[in-house]
Amino acid sequence: MNKRNLSAMHALSEFAAGKVKLSPGPLKARFELNKKYIMSLTDENLLRNFYLEAGLWSYSGNGGTTSATTTSSDGPEHWHWGWESPTCELRGHMMGHWLSAAARIYSQTGDAQVRAKADFIVAELERCQQANDGQWLAAFPQTYMNRMAQGRFVWAPHYTLHKLLMGLHEMYVLTGNQKALAIMNGLAAWFHQWTARFSEQEMDELLDLETGGMLEAWADLYGITRDPKHLALIQKYERRRFFDALLEGQDVLTNKHANTQIPEILGAARAWEVTGEAKYRKIVEAFWKNAVTDRGYVATGAGDNGELWMPAGDMGARLGVGQEHCCNYNMMRLAHTLLRWTGEAAYADYWERRFVNGVLAHQHGDTGMVSYFLGLGAGSQKAWGSPTQHFWCCHGTLVQANAAYASQIFLADQEGISVCQWLSSELACEWEGCAIRLQLEQDGQYGDYPLNNWSVTGMEAITKVNTPPLPIHRPNGMKYTLTIRTEQPVTFALKLRMPWWLSGQASISINGRPAEAGLYAPSTFVKLARQWEDGDSITVELPKALKAEPLPGGEGKVAFLDGPVVLAGLTAEERHLAGDPAHPATLLTPDRERNHSWWNSGYYRTAGIDRGFRFIPLYEVKDEAYTVYFSMKPN
Q1: How far apart are CA 120 and CA 106, in angstroms?
Q2: Torsion angle (degrees, nearest 10) of CA 550, 551, 555, 559
Q3: What is the pLDDT of residue 371?
Q4: For 11-21, what is each residue's pLDDT tens digit?
């Protein structure tokens, strides 16, 4: 890392792929669960519909004249179904998600098996492209595009192709796979010819259908090639009707399909980064103002329900099926982009809220499977997908999300290193030619630790008696240690995000002595600039508290958060609580706070009502019925 290499367009920049790695612990376990699932999907099933479309595979069951068998190891009972079935118009989307996840997993782990599997799949996709016409590649026929151009409904071929292009792009950028870039160039050539026939008005009509992130795909490709034809595709896929209305300050979100619009804005963001055209950045900023700042959100950070944007500040009547994971993940991507552009901690706060109460809550902690929606109303229940029978869109974004969070933790700026997310990990980098390792560890015994479970450290804490005594009750704060390893003394600024959920003054010490960094306000970065030496240790304690957060437009309904963690009441009924939301301890009391060698983060039970019930973190809910928003009993 050299401060002269950082983009002048960005306040913060990501470190190179593989420089940040998750440390052993509960989050790494979630990552490994996702990796195991990724590797369980067979090459044949991932490629089947591409082979079919390229004429490289067919299936006639057991009724053929050349076979008398009655069973087959490659029969339909072994195939991918749901949205990946050969009869579904959206088939092929999972391939792109898979490639993205595999590329990110490889970039963090260096796992040769992941790399070999991904490289083989890309090579087979190239074979399919050559078997078509050397340009077209999809799991569906070109006639889908022609039907769409004729105004006849077809289920989102642009959306599916964007996923494929995104996966190929990440295979090229993160693993160096040259064939992936060649495939992208071939598809771009096809689209350049196909779009040439349409007038601007005809393109506007096409873009009013679900185009997914095609603008982002062309911007990504142009960022690599600088080919004028790829710039022309950016311009073709600029959705003027939507973008112009945003710039005019219109609310073109309420009751519209969020999962269509967010990827288009990600495309505008990438277009600004590769072209420098100011209008694209203005579009992104206008969208964020409309979607988040002015609209507000529920406790998880979501402004959508059932994939549609809820009315600004008026969400009380919209507690239906709940937030959708694709919207959750794509809004996290947008928040991270704005964090890079501006360096403002509020965007990292938003990312954290949606990570803890979105990505982690949408994933089954045992199976790794996804819940498409995440309800917050009375009697909500997560509906889990299966490994090979559903393949919803959210199935794909979940495997991407759980392969991608390491790159959000540490970012670089002109002065040094920013700790943007408090997730146990390690950064290896250079500053002005000096090798540095920065280890971020969370203390699960003297601080609260969401997701924590059994560990050797925990066992030592309950067996050793020559160590400081453990807290009597569950700590009301998170505790972290940052350790610097360096070849020689080096001067840089270390910036620490003070999160939105701080309930009091944070404590920061360097080598056991209090740091002199002034007041530590929530949603800011604290700057520690000095000469660092090998073994320097920074201890950070972030106090948190139980709080009740009102539902926008919810007529007194509240959700409970313990620090950043949304709590779910284990009740299938509409229940009223007794107490004062301004003083949450009158409503909930700690419950089952200790489990063997770890603290149960976010465990509470009701106080002062008959037929009491328990609260646990929303991300821990599996098959239980639950409720997030509650009204108070009348006085």
Answers
A1: 14
A2: -60
A3: 97
A4: 999 999 999 99
Contact 219, 272 (CB under 8 A): no
Least Cα distance to 167 among 129, 211, 127, 216 occurs for 216
Helices (H), 343-444: 345-354, 360-362, 393-404
* Mean pLDDT, the chain, whole residue set: 95
What's the residue count for the chain? 635
93-109 helix and 157-175 helix, angle to the nearest 10 degrees: 20
**What's the burial of 315, exposed, middle or buried (CB within 10 Å: 0-12/13-18/19+)?**
buried
d(CA 335, CA 325) in angstroms, rounded, equals 15
Query: What percentage of the chain reaches a pLDDT higher than 90?
Result: 93
pLDDT digits (tens, 9 = 90+) for 542-573: 999 999 999 999 989 999 999 999 999 999 99
* Cα–Cα distance, 282 to 268 (Å, whole number): 9
The answer to whether 555 touches 316, Cβ cutoff 8 Å, is yes
Q: Rounded distance, CA 291 to CA 99, Å?
A: 30
Residues 6+ apart with CB under 8 A from 66: none
DSSP string, 145-178: HHHHHTT---S-HHHHHHHHHHHHHHHHHHH--H
Phi, psi of 242 (to 5 degrees): -75, -50
Express each pLDDT in 190-209 by its tens digit. Answer: 999 999 999 999 999 999 98
Residue identified by tokens 């008696």 is 465
